[in-house]
């Protein structure tokens, strides 16, 4: 007798009864799919989303288009809004330059650059001490930094003016100098708080391994902590620059002469000048707007990464 032939048992497909063949079609997600259900198939929901995006785009883009249009228009009308210039001209920029707008822009660039550099250094050192070290009074110091965000500029304007006129201990008069504007902006509670929370999320094992290799405090901060905090530094850089660039009251009280004004103060001077029209003011606004746009475009990726990292924390 010959031995019976046993057919090998084929393994059943997972999650299906044995012996039953199923044709499972795998679909790859579209590049438009998101957690909110956005897809490329037209429908009522798709139409509503597109309509909302267009409305939001119009709300945010309309002021910019109006400013640029008025800056290149000979006599822009204040009673109507136009997105395209009429009778295009560069005369408004020429008149703004004759009123010293470029000198004011230079003052703003010096103050914004020096103030942002000082602010990032001070806030980074303060955040590193608060996040990576334990000491008595740590919570009190953090609370004091946060309290500075609750004080309006108008409340501290007069005390700050007195201090800038006669700095304690050294008895120096900082009015009329760029240091009178840069030094008060050297620390910002928002940047300290944000960098502190970001640094606290860095695993302690990385720091412990570096200390076993003999890494000191400054090297730890420069080579270990700061490279991991690039997204947060990008956010602090963009928001810090905009905060310094938009200062109005501080340059006003720290100046001794109109030549010490920044571009934000110069715009108010152009607005009250009866010899210039609204087109010159809009041209000055365009000039004041360009540096902020450049900084945002350069640090856009770090800004988005930092915000996304903060939103997904925990």
In short:
The protein is flat. Helix content is 61%, strand content 0%.
Structure, explained:
The chain is an all-alpha fold. Helices cover 61% and strands 0% of the residues. It has 14 helices and no strands. It has helices at 44-71, 91-98, 101-132, 138-147, 153-165, 179-182, 189-200, 204-212, 217-228, 230-245, 249-254, 263-272, 278-298, 300-311. Helix 3 packs antiparallel against helix 12 and helix 7 packs antiparallel against helix 10. It is flat and about 70 Å long. The N and C termini lie far apart (71 Å).
Average residue pLDDT:
82
Sheet/helix structural class? mainly alpha
Tally of helical runs: 14
Please report the distance between the alpha carbons of the first and last residues.
Answer: 71 Å
Biggest β-sheet: count, sense, barrel? none
| Uncertain spans | 1-37
| Gyration radius over CA | 29 Å
Beta-strand level of the residues, as a percent range?
Answer: under 5%
Helix percentage: 55-70%
Shape: flat
Beta strand count: 0
Element pattern in H and E: HHHHHHHHHHHHHH
Q: How does the SSE layout of this entry go?
A:
Layout: H1 44-71, H2 91-98, H3 101-132, H4 138-147, H5 153-165, H6 179-182, H7 189-200, H8 204-212, H9 217-228, H10 230-245, H11 249-254, H12 263-272, H13 278-298, H14 300-311
Helix pairs in contact: 1-13, 2-13, 3-7, 3-10, 3-12, 4-7, 7-10, 10-14, 12-13
